[in-house]
Amino acid sequence: PGLGRPGVVERLGAGWAATPWLALGADALVSVGDPSDDPMSASMAAWTRVARPPGEGLRVAGTAGVHREFAGVWAITGSVGVELPVDRFVLGLTPSVERRLDPEADAVDLMLPMAAGVALGKGLRLGAEAVGQDLEDYLEGEEEEAEGGAVWIAAATAGWSGEQLDLALAPGVGVGPQGAGFVARLRAAWRF
User: Is the pLDDT score of 81 beyond 90?
Assistant: First the structure.
């Protein structure tokens, strides 16, 4: 779904921490949008994440993966996440790149998620996040972007973490060449 068009994106994933610094996982994603545009798309992904072992100070993690859309297009993805906890506050930045192996797609897609949050106690946290998508337009000066142009999303975040269950909600607004619209993210995760 695009900005200004109704739609829902559902993601189901599983990850396994093989060691404190290495995790493996897989995701399935289904997008249901406007019937006049792209009524439904789906993809499956496998990924691996290498992170600095938990501890005090700066946390860094690198993620690499590959996914295949059910339409047959393959993509390679990679990201580096940096998180700085300071007392009850945390700042995060996760630049990522995707290369879709499709002649009609952009040569590369750049995305920049940024977040800040504060722990309130008893597992509650509040924060804000901003995400820039398709930012390669700014670097290449393209007149016509294959996927519609750069989009910026800003959202407030609220979350709760228990012993095994994590819940998060991030309602916000997205702005891009197609217009502006309401966006939201709901996350539920269970740790075994």
Answer: yes
